[in-house]
Design goal:
Order of helices and strands: HEEHEEEHHH
Helix content: 10-25%
CATH class of the largest domain: Alpha Beta
Strand content: 15-25%
């Protein structure tokens, strides 16, 4: 049995009681969008903050902070939106952005559309029916006033999804819509083609 309980902030031995650096109710160091703590000249990034507890997040946040402080890159700050994350299970699980509940809370349930595709990966084509591992892909979209469906969440479980998440994260950070996905040509035979084939509209 595996139990994933998260990663608590290791701040007890930092001597923060001798500073004006404040912690939140969970013990994380409070920072603003520029990684400034509540004490001027003291900064925090990584797992001691309430940011996603992922190594690439901490590395990027640290590099951005260094650029801002030492290379006069004023205004440069970390973008925590659409951080891709993968659970390297068998099969792997990948997720980016909002889930359905979070999207409904942020945009209103009536403005959220979920597109789903459940299928058997072609890698397992020779396996007998009933023994083919299944995949499930989801696109969560915010229906904007213009009528466009902005992709705000991508979730998938199945063979190979760990390698798909990076490109999807780039697309989301560029503001991709469901129509952008629909307008893309599928790579066949791959599992990733399901992202551009589900509920496709030709306009």
């Amino acid at each position: 049995m595996l139990l994933a309980i998260g990663r608590p902030p290791n701040t007890e031995l930092l001597g923060l009681e001798n500073t004006s650096v404040k912690l939140d109710s969970k013990g994380f160091i409070q920072v603003d969008e520029f990684s400034n703590t509540t004490q001027p000249g003291v900064y925090a990034v990584g797992d001691v903050t309430d940011a996603p507890a992922l190594t690439p997040v901490a590395i990027r946040a640290g590099r951005i902070l260094s650029e801002r402080l030492f290379n006069q890159r004023e205004g440069l700050k970390m973008n925590f939106a659409n951080v891709p994350s993968v659970i390297f299970s068998h099969p792997p699980i990948g997720t980016i952005g909002l889930n359905e509940s979070e999207a409904a809370l942020k945009f209103g349930k009536e403005n959220v559309t979920t597109h789903k595709s459940g299928f058997g990966n072609m890698f397992y084509s020779l396996k007998p029916e009933g023994h083919k591992p299944q995949s499930l892909f989801k696109l969560i979209c915010h229906r904007e006033s213009s009528g466009a469906e902005r992709v705000v969440g991508v979730h998938a479980i199945g063979r190979g999804v760990d390698e798909m998440m990076q490109g999807l994260s780039i697309a989301m950070n560029m503001g991709a819509t469901k129509q952008d996905f629909d307008n893309s040509v599928a790579i066949h035979p791959t599992a990733s083609e399901e992202f551009v084939l589900m509920d496709a509209k030709f306009v």
